[in-house]
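3.2 Worked example (two chains)
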Amino acid sequence: MSPRLALAAEPRFFRGRSPQSKLLGLGLRSTVRPVLGLWSRLPFDLFPPNLIDHVARLLPVDEGTSWRTIALEQCSSEFLRARDVQDIHGGNPRVVLYFHGGAFLTCGLNTHRRLVSRISHAADQPVLNVGYRQMPFEPITESVADGVDAFRWLLAQGYRAQDVTIAGDSAGGYLAFSVARAVLDAELGRPAGVVAISPLLDVDPTTKRAHRNADRCQVFPLRALERFTDVALRMDTRRGIAGTRVCPVNMPVADMPPALIQVGSREILMADAEVMANRLVAAGVPCDLQVWDRQVHVFQAAASWVPEARAAIAEIGAFVESVTDARAPSAAAPAPARQRSRAASAASG
Protein backbone atom coordinates (compact mmCIF):
# COMPACT_ATOMS: atom_id res chain seq x y z
CA MET A 1 0.00 0.00 0.00
CA SER A 2 1.09 3.53 -0.63
CA PRO A 3 1.99 5.84 2.27
CA ARG A 4 -0.33 8.66 3.23
CA LEU A 5 -0.50 11.33 0.57
CA ALA A 6 1.44 14.43 1.60
CA LEU A 7 -1.27 17.06 1.78
CA ALA A 8 -0.74 20.76 1.27
CA ALA A 9 -2.84 21.17 4.43
CA GLU A 10 -3.44 18.65 7.20
CA PRO A 11 -6.93 17.13 7.40
CA ARG A 12 -9.07 17.56 10.50
CA PHE A 13 -9.56 14.20 12.20
CA PHE A 14 -12.77 13.57 14.14
CA ARG A 15 -11.94 10.80 16.60
CA GLY A 16 -14.39 8.38 18.17
CA ARG A 17 -16.90 5.76 17.11
CA SER A 18 -20.24 5.18 18.80
CA PRO A 19 -21.89 1.75 19.23
CA GLN A 20 -24.49 2.83 16.67
CA SER A 21 -21.74 3.57 14.17
CA LYS A 22 -20.10 0.19 14.77
CA LEU A 23 -23.42 -1.56 14.22
CA LEU A 24 -24.00 0.36 10.98
CA GLY A 25 -20.56 -0.61 9.71
CA LEU A 26 -21.07 -4.27 10.56
CA GLY A 27 -24.43 -4.29 8.82
CA LEU A 28 -23.11 -2.76 5.61
CA ARG A 29 -20.05 -5.02 5.55
CA SER A 30 -22.33 -8.05 5.90
CA THR A 31 -24.91 -7.02 3.29
CA VAL A 32 -24.09 -4.28 0.81
CA ARG A 33 -20.41 -5.11 0.31
CA PRO A 34 -21.04 -8.79 -0.61
CA VAL A 35 -23.82 -7.80 -3.03
CA LEU A 36 -21.54 -5.29 -4.75
CA GLY A 37 -18.79 -7.89 -4.87
CA LEU A 38 -21.15 -10.33 -6.57
CA TRP A 39 -22.28 -7.66 -9.08
CA SER A 40 -18.65 -6.93 -9.96
CA ARG A 41 -18.08 -10.58 -10.93
CA LEU A 42 -21.10 -11.03 -13.18
CA PRO A 43 -20.11 -11.94 -16.78
CA PHE A 44 -22.80 -9.57 -18.08
CA ASP A 45 -24.17 -6.13 -17.24
CA LEU A 46 -27.06 -6.18 -14.79
CA PHE A 47 -28.87 -2.94 -13.96
CA PRO A 48 -32.07 -3.68 -12.02
CA PRO A 49 -34.79 -1.02 -11.92
CA ASN A 50 -34.14 1.68 -9.34
CA LEU A 51 -36.39 -0.03 -6.81
CA ILE A 52 -34.58 1.44 -3.84
CA ASP A 53 -35.76 4.94 -4.73
CA HIS A 54 -39.36 3.77 -5.14
CA VAL A 55 -39.32 1.97 -1.77
CA ALA A 56 -37.79 5.06 -0.15
CA ARG A 57 -41.04 6.94 -0.82
CA LEU A 58 -42.34 5.23 2.32
CA LEU A 59 -39.61 6.65 4.57
CA PRO A 60 -40.65 9.51 6.84
CA VAL A 61 -38.89 12.88 6.82
CA ASP A 62 -38.37 15.29 9.70
CA GLU A 63 -41.58 16.94 10.84
CA GLY A 64 -42.23 20.26 9.17
CA THR A 65 -40.27 19.48 6.00
CA SER A 66 -41.98 20.67 2.83
CA TRP A 67 -41.10 20.21 -0.84
CA ARG A 68 -42.49 20.81 -4.29
CA THR A 69 -41.63 19.23 -7.62
CA ILE A 70 -39.59 21.28 -10.09
CA ALA A 71 -39.56 20.33 -13.78
CA LEU A 72 -36.14 21.08 -15.22
CA GLU A 73 -35.20 20.80 -18.89
CA GLN A 74 -34.41 17.06 -18.83
CA CYS A 75 -35.18 15.82 -15.32
CA SER A 76 -37.41 16.23 -12.32
CA SER A 77 -36.17 17.82 -9.11
CA GLU A 78 -37.63 19.12 -5.89
CA PHE A 79 -37.30 22.33 -3.93
CA LEU A 80 -37.18 21.41 -0.23
CA ARG A 81 -37.27 23.39 2.99
CA ALA A 82 -36.86 22.13 6.53
CA ARG A 83 -39.11 23.47 9.27
CA ASP A 84 -38.92 27.29 9.66
CA VAL A 85 -36.51 27.68 6.73
CA GLN A 86 -37.41 30.57 4.41
CA ASP A 87 -36.74 30.83 0.69
CA ILE A 88 -35.98 33.92 -1.39
CA HIS A 89 -39.62 35.01 -1.23
CA GLY A 90 -39.42 34.95 2.57
CA GLY A 91 -36.30 37.10 2.63
CA ASN A 92 -33.63 34.38 2.59
CA PRO A 93 -31.36 34.94 -0.45
CA ARG A 94 -29.24 31.81 0.08
CA VAL A 95 -29.76 28.29 -1.22
CA VAL A 96 -28.11 24.87 -1.56
CA LEU A 97 -28.00 22.90 -4.83
CA TYR A 98 -27.78 19.18 -3.97
CA PHE A 99 -26.91 16.02 -5.92
CA HIS A 100 -27.68 12.58 -4.48
CA GLY A 101 -25.27 9.66 -4.59
CA GLY A 102 -25.73 6.15 -5.96
CA ALA A 103 -22.78 5.57 -8.32
CA PHE A 104 -24.72 7.26 -11.18
CA LEU A 105 -26.78 4.04 -11.30
CA THR A 106 -29.27 4.10 -8.43
CA CYS A 107 -30.91 6.15 -5.64
CA GLY A 108 -32.73 9.41 -6.20
CA LEU A 109 -34.85 12.14 -4.64
CA ASN A 110 -36.70 9.75 -2.32
CA THR A 111 -33.64 8.01 -0.88
CA HIS A 112 -31.97 11.31 -0.02
CA ARG A 113 -34.90 13.47 1.09
CA ARG A 114 -34.22 12.96 4.80
CA LEU A 115 -30.53 13.79 4.46
CA VAL A 116 -31.34 16.86 2.37
CA SER A 117 -33.89 17.98 4.96
CA ARG A 118 -31.27 17.70 7.70
CA ILE A 119 -28.82 19.77 5.67
CA SER A 120 -31.52 22.36 4.98
CA HIS A 121 -32.16 22.66 8.71
CA ALA A 122 -28.47 22.81 9.65
CA ALA A 123 -27.67 25.47 7.04
CA ASP A 124 -30.95 27.39 7.47
CA GLN A 125 -31.33 27.35 3.69
CA PRO A 126 -33.71 25.73 1.18
CA VAL A 127 -32.30 23.01 -1.07
CA LEU A 128 -32.88 22.21 -4.73
CA ASN A 129 -32.48 18.42 -4.79
CA VAL A 130 -31.75 17.35 -8.39
CA GLY A 131 -33.09 14.10 -9.87
CA TYR A 132 -30.46 14.07 -12.62
CA ARG A 133 -30.35 11.53 -15.45
CA GLN A 134 -28.20 8.47 -14.74
CA MET A 135 -26.49 5.49 -16.31
CA PRO A 136 -27.15 3.10 -17.97
CA PHE A 137 -29.50 5.40 -19.89
CA GLU A 138 -27.34 8.53 -19.99
CA PRO A 139 -23.59 9.16 -19.52
CA ILE A 140 -22.13 11.22 -16.70
CA THR A 141 -21.82 14.27 -18.95
CA GLU A 142 -25.63 14.44 -19.14
CA SER A 143 -25.81 14.30 -15.34
CA VAL A 144 -23.51 17.33 -15.24
CA ALA A 145 -25.67 19.09 -17.84
CA ASP A 146 -28.73 18.55 -15.64
CA GLY A 147 -26.80 20.12 -12.76
CA VAL A 148 -26.02 23.22 -14.79
CA ASP A 149 -29.69 23.45 -15.79
CA ALA A 150 -30.59 23.35 -12.09
CA PHE A 151 -28.12 26.15 -11.36
CA ARG A 152 -29.66 28.25 -14.15
CA TRP A 153 -33.12 27.60 -12.68
CA LEU A 154 -31.98 29.01 -9.34
CA LEU A 155 -30.61 32.11 -11.06
CA ALA A 156 -33.96 32.53 -12.81
CA GLN A 157 -35.70 32.50 -9.42
CA GLY A 158 -33.60 35.46 -8.31
CA TYR A 159 -30.77 33.71 -6.45
CA ARG A 160 -27.29 35.05 -7.09
CA ALA A 161 -24.47 32.67 -7.99
CA GLN A 162 -22.47 33.76 -4.95
CA ASP A 163 -25.36 32.73 -2.68
CA VAL A 164 -25.55 29.15 -4.02
CA THR A 165 -23.61 26.37 -2.32
CA ILE A 166 -23.28 23.21 -4.42
CA ALA A 167 -23.27 19.93 -2.47
CA GLY A 168 -23.53 16.20 -3.01
CA ASP A 169 -22.62 12.78 -1.68
CA SER A 170 -20.67 9.97 -3.37
CA ALA A 171 -21.39 10.32 -7.11
CA GLY A 172 -23.15 13.56 -6.15
CA GLY A 173 -19.79 14.80 -4.87
CA TYR A 174 -18.42 14.27 -8.39
CA LEU A 175 -21.31 16.37 -9.67
CA ALA A 176 -20.86 19.07 -7.03
CA PHE A 177 -17.32 19.79 -8.22
CA SER A 178 -18.10 19.19 -11.91
CA VAL A 179 -21.13 21.50 -11.91
CA ALA A 180 -19.19 24.20 -10.07
CA ARG A 181 -16.50 23.94 -12.76
CA ALA A 182 -19.08 24.01 -15.57
CA VAL A 183 -20.83 27.02 -14.05
CA LEU A 184 -17.54 28.91 -13.88
CA ASP A 185 -16.67 27.96 -17.46
CA ALA A 186 -20.10 29.12 -18.65
CA GLU A 187 -19.51 32.46 -16.88
CA LEU A 188 -22.66 32.07 -14.81
CA GLY A 189 -20.89 33.37 -11.73
CA ARG A 190 -18.89 31.86 -8.87
CA PRO A 191 -20.77 29.67 -6.41
CA ALA A 192 -20.32 30.28 -2.69
CA GLY A 193 -18.76 26.90 -1.98
CA VAL A 194 -18.72 23.16 -2.60
CA VAL A 195 -19.60 20.41 -0.11
CA ALA A 196 -18.60 16.85 -0.99
CA ILE A 197 -19.65 13.93 1.25
CA SER A 198 -17.66 10.71 0.71
CA PRO A 199 -17.09 11.87 -2.86
CA LEU A 200 -16.23 9.77 -5.89
CA LEU A 201 -13.94 12.21 -7.73
CA ASP A 202 -11.98 10.00 -10.10
CA VAL A 203 -13.48 7.31 -12.34
CA ASP A 204 -10.00 5.87 -12.90
CA PRO A 205 -9.40 3.32 -10.09
CA THR A 206 -5.59 3.45 -10.26
CA THR A 207 -5.05 5.70 -7.23
CA LYS A 208 -7.64 3.81 -5.20
CA ARG A 209 -6.03 0.49 -6.13
CA ALA A 210 -2.72 1.62 -4.61
CA HIS A 211 -4.24 3.29 -1.53
CA ARG A 212 -3.98 1.94 2.01
CA ASN A 213 -7.80 1.70 2.12
CA ALA A 214 -8.08 -0.46 -1.00
CA ASP A 215 -9.42 -3.41 1.03
CA ARG A 216 -10.56 -1.71 4.24
CA CYS A 217 -13.78 -0.07 3.04
CA GLN A 218 -16.91 -1.47 4.68
CA VAL A 219 -19.10 -0.74 1.65
CA PHE A 220 -17.13 -0.91 -1.62
CA PRO A 221 -14.83 -3.73 -2.70
CA LEU A 222 -12.22 -2.52 -5.16
CA ARG A 223 -13.61 -4.82 -7.86
CA ALA A 224 -16.97 -3.02 -7.74
CA LEU A 225 -15.31 0.32 -8.43
CA GLU A 226 -13.33 -1.22 -11.27
CA ARG A 227 -16.57 -2.58 -12.75
CA PHE A 228 -18.16 0.86 -12.39
CA THR A 229 -15.22 2.33 -14.33
CA ASP A 230 -15.83 -0.13 -17.18
CA VAL A 231 -19.53 0.78 -17.32
CA ALA A 232 -18.83 4.53 -17.34
CA LEU A 233 -16.17 4.29 -20.05
CA ARG A 234 -18.32 2.07 -22.27
CA MET A 235 -21.19 4.54 -21.92
CA ASP A 236 -18.87 7.38 -22.96
CA THR A 237 -17.69 5.37 -25.96
CA ARG A 238 -21.24 4.62 -27.10
CA ARG A 239 -22.09 8.32 -26.94
CA GLY A 240 -18.91 9.38 -28.75
CA ILE A 241 -17.46 11.32 -25.82
CA ALA A 242 -14.68 8.93 -24.83
CA GLY A 243 -11.65 10.83 -23.61
CA THR A 244 -13.43 14.19 -23.36
CA ARG A 245 -14.97 13.94 -19.88
CA VAL A 246 -12.65 15.32 -17.19
CA CYS A 247 -12.97 14.04 -13.61
CA PRO A 248 -12.86 16.57 -10.76
CA VAL A 249 -9.37 15.51 -9.64
CA ASN A 250 -8.03 16.61 -13.06
CA MET A 251 -9.98 19.85 -13.46
CA PRO A 252 -8.50 23.36 -13.25
CA VAL A 253 -9.08 24.41 -9.65
CA ALA A 254 -7.37 27.76 -9.05
CA ASP A 255 -10.64 29.71 -9.41
CA MET A 256 -12.85 27.21 -7.58
CA PRO A 257 -14.83 28.31 -4.49
CA PRO A 258 -13.98 27.08 -0.96
CA ALA A 259 -14.69 23.42 -0.33
CA LEU A 260 -15.60 21.08 2.49
CA ILE A 261 -14.87 17.38 2.00
CA GLN A 262 -16.03 14.78 4.54
CA VAL A 263 -14.90 11.16 4.35
CA GLY A 264 -14.61 8.12 6.62
CA SER A 265 -11.07 7.18 7.62
CA ARG A 266 -11.28 3.70 6.05
CA GLU A 267 -13.25 4.51 2.92
CA ILE A 268 -11.73 3.49 -0.38
CA LEU A 269 -12.76 6.93 -1.66
CA MET A 270 -10.31 8.49 0.78
CA ALA A 271 -7.87 8.35 -2.13
CA ASP A 272 -10.01 10.73 -4.17
CA ALA A 273 -10.62 13.04 -1.20
CA GLU A 274 -6.91 13.37 -0.47
CA VAL A 275 -5.95 14.09 -4.07
CA MET A 276 -8.69 16.71 -4.45
CA ALA A 277 -7.90 18.44 -1.17
CA ASN A 278 -4.22 18.51 -2.04
CA ARG A 279 -4.88 20.09 -5.44
CA LEU A 280 -7.25 22.71 -4.05
CA VAL A 281 -5.06 23.85 -1.18
CA ALA A 282 -1.92 23.83 -3.34
CA ALA A 283 -3.78 26.15 -5.73
CA GLY A 284 -4.67 28.51 -2.90
CA VAL A 285 -8.32 27.43 -2.60
CA PRO A 286 -9.54 26.95 1.00
CA CYS A 287 -10.45 23.31 1.58
CA ASP A 288 -11.48 21.71 4.86
CA LEU A 289 -10.81 17.97 4.58
CA GLN A 290 -12.61 16.27 7.47
CA VAL A 291 -11.71 12.65 8.19
CA TRP A 292 -14.20 10.85 10.44
CA ASP A 293 -12.87 7.95 12.50
CA ARG A 294 -13.92 4.60 10.91
CA GLN A 295 -17.22 6.00 9.65
CA VAL A 296 -18.87 4.32 6.69
CA HIS A 297 -19.63 5.69 3.26
CA VAL A 298 -22.13 8.60 3.57
CA PHE A 299 -22.71 7.88 7.25
CA GLN A 300 -24.44 11.28 7.37
CA ALA A 301 -27.54 9.59 5.93
CA ALA A 302 -27.98 7.75 9.25
CA ALA A 303 -28.41 10.96 11.26
CA SER A 304 -31.62 9.71 12.88
CA TRP A 305 -29.64 7.29 15.06
CA VAL A 306 -25.87 7.77 14.58
CA PRO A 307 -24.51 10.70 16.64
CA GLU A 308 -21.44 11.20 14.43
CA ALA A 309 -23.78 11.72 11.48
CA ARG A 310 -25.57 14.54 13.29
CA ALA A 311 -22.25 16.13 14.21
CA ALA A 312 -21.06 15.92 10.59
CA ILE A 313 -24.25 17.55 9.31
CA ALA A 314 -23.79 20.33 11.85
CA GLU A 315 -20.31 20.88 10.37
CA ILE A 316 -21.85 21.05 6.89
CA GLY A 317 -24.40 23.59 8.07
CA ALA A 318 -21.73 25.76 9.67
CA PHE A 319 -19.61 25.65 6.51
CA VAL A 320 -22.52 26.52 4.21
CA GLU A 321 -23.54 29.44 6.39
CA SER A 322 -19.96 30.68 6.65
CA VAL A 323 -19.34 30.79 2.88
CA THR A 324 -22.66 32.46 2.11
CA ASP A 325 -22.60 34.89 5.06
CA ALA A 326 -19.09 35.95 4.04
CA ARG A 327 -20.57 37.36 0.82
CA ALA A 328 -23.84 38.65 2.26
CA PRO A 329 -24.64 42.35 2.77
CA SER A 330 -23.85 43.92 6.12
CA ALA A 331 -27.53 43.57 7.06
CA ALA A 332 -26.86 39.85 7.57
CA ALA A 333 -24.58 40.53 10.54
CA PRO A 334 -26.67 38.47 13.03
CA ALA A 335 -26.00 35.29 10.99
CA PRO A 336 -23.16 33.88 13.15
CA ALA A 337 -25.49 33.56 16.16
CA ARG A 338 -28.08 31.80 14.00
CA GLN A 339 -25.33 29.57 12.65
CA ARG A 340 -24.35 28.45 16.14
CA SER A 341 -27.90 27.72 17.17
CA ARG A 342 -28.62 25.75 13.99
CA ALA A 343 -25.42 23.73 14.32
CA ALA A 344 -26.20 22.88 17.95
CA SER A 345 -29.74 21.86 17.00
CA ALA A 346 -28.55 19.66 14.12
CA ALA A 347 -25.96 17.93 16.30
CA SER A 348 -28.43 17.09 19.03
CA GLY A 349 -31.55 16.44 16.94
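3.2.1 Second chain
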Amino acid sequence: MASVREHLEASLNDPAFREEWEAQEVEREVIGSIVEARLAAGLSQKELAERCGMKASNLCRLENGNGNPSVATLAKIARGLGKRLRISFV
Protein backbone atom coordinates (compact mmCIF):
# COMPACT_ATOMS: atom_id res chain seq x y z
CA MET A 1 0.00 0.00 0.00
CA ALA A 2 1.34 3.42 -0.95
CA SER A 3 1.93 6.02 1.71
CA VAL A 4 0.01 9.30 1.65
CA ARG A 5 3.14 11.09 0.46
CA GLU A 6 3.66 8.60 -2.37
CA HIS A 7 0.02 8.94 -3.40
CA LEU A 8 0.28 12.73 -3.35
CA GLU A 9 3.46 12.70 -5.43
CA ALA A 10 1.83 10.44 -8.01
CA SER A 11 -1.33 12.58 -8.05
CA LEU A 12 0.68 15.73 -8.66
CA ASN A 13 1.51 14.35 -12.11
CA ASP A 14 -2.12 15.04 -13.07
CA PRO A 15 -2.26 18.70 -14.24
CA ALA A 16 -5.83 19.24 -12.96
CA PHE A 17 -4.95 17.83 -9.54
CA ARG A 18 -1.73 19.88 -9.39
CA GLU A 19 -3.63 23.07 -10.23
CA GLU A 20 -6.18 22.49 -7.47
CA TRP A 21 -3.45 21.49 -4.98
CA GLU A 22 -1.54 24.69 -5.69
CA ALA A 23 -4.73 26.76 -5.46
CA GLN A 24 -5.25 25.47 -1.91
CA GLU A 25 -1.74 26.28 -0.69
CA VAL A 26 -2.81 29.24 1.45
CA GLU A 27 -5.53 27.21 3.17
CA ARG A 28 -3.02 24.46 4.00
CA GLU A 29 -0.62 27.05 5.43
CA VAL A 30 -3.33 28.56 7.63
CA ILE A 31 -4.44 25.14 8.87
CA GLY A 32 -0.84 24.14 9.55
CA SER A 33 -0.22 27.34 11.50
CA ILE A 34 -3.28 26.77 13.68
CA VAL A 35 -2.42 23.14 14.41
CA GLU A 36 1.24 23.92 15.05
CA ALA A 37 0.43 26.78 17.45
CA ARG A 38 -2.21 24.70 19.27
CA LEU A 39 0.19 21.80 19.76
CA ALA A 40 3.01 24.13 20.84
CA ALA A 41 0.65 25.57 23.46
CA GLY A 42 -0.14 22.04 24.67
CA LEU A 43 -3.85 22.47 23.97
CA SER A 44 -6.38 19.96 22.73
CA GLN A 45 -8.92 21.01 20.14
CA LYS A 46 -11.55 21.09 22.87
CA GLU A 47 -9.45 23.33 25.12
CA LEU A 48 -8.66 25.78 22.32
CA ALA A 49 -12.29 25.83 21.19
CA GLU A 50 -13.39 26.69 24.73
CA ARG A 51 -10.86 29.53 24.88
CA CYS A 52 -12.21 30.81 21.56
CA GLY A 53 -15.88 30.50 22.47
CA MET A 54 -16.56 28.05 19.68
CA LYS A 55 -17.61 24.43 19.39
CA ALA A 56 -14.82 21.87 19.30
CA SER A 57 -16.47 20.30 16.25
CA ASN A 58 -16.13 23.61 14.37
CA LEU A 59 -12.43 23.87 15.23
CA CYS A 60 -11.95 20.24 14.22
CA ARG A 61 -13.63 20.95 10.88
CA LEU A 62 -11.30 23.92 10.30
CA GLU A 63 -8.21 21.91 11.17
CA ASN A 64 -9.31 19.15 8.80
CA GLY A 65 -9.67 21.60 5.94
CA ASN A 66 -13.45 21.34 5.80
CA GLY A 67 -14.19 24.95 6.61
CA ASN A 68 -13.47 28.41 5.36
CA PRO A 69 -12.87 30.58 8.44
CA SER A 70 -13.54 34.28 8.34
CA VAL A 71 -10.91 36.76 9.44
CA ALA A 72 -12.97 37.24 12.62
CA THR A 73 -12.79 33.51 13.36
CA LEU A 74 -9.05 33.47 12.73
CA ALA A 75 -8.68 36.42 15.12
CA LYS A 76 -10.66 34.50 17.80
CA ILE A 77 -8.37 31.51 17.36
CA ALA A 78 -5.30 33.73 17.60
CA ARG A 79 -6.60 35.26 20.84
CA GLY A 80 -7.39 31.79 22.18
CA LEU A 81 -3.77 30.90 21.52
CA GLY A 82 -2.56 34.08 23.25
CA LYS A 83 -1.39 35.46 19.93
CA ARG A 84 -2.28 38.20 17.45
CA LEU A 85 -3.46 37.54 13.95
CA ARG A 86 -1.24 39.06 11.29
CA ILE A 87 -2.06 38.86 7.62
CA SER A 88 0.52 39.98 5.11
CA PHE A 89 0.98 40.06 1.39
CA VAL A 90 4.44 38.93 0.34
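3.3 Remarks
The longest helix spans residues 25-40.
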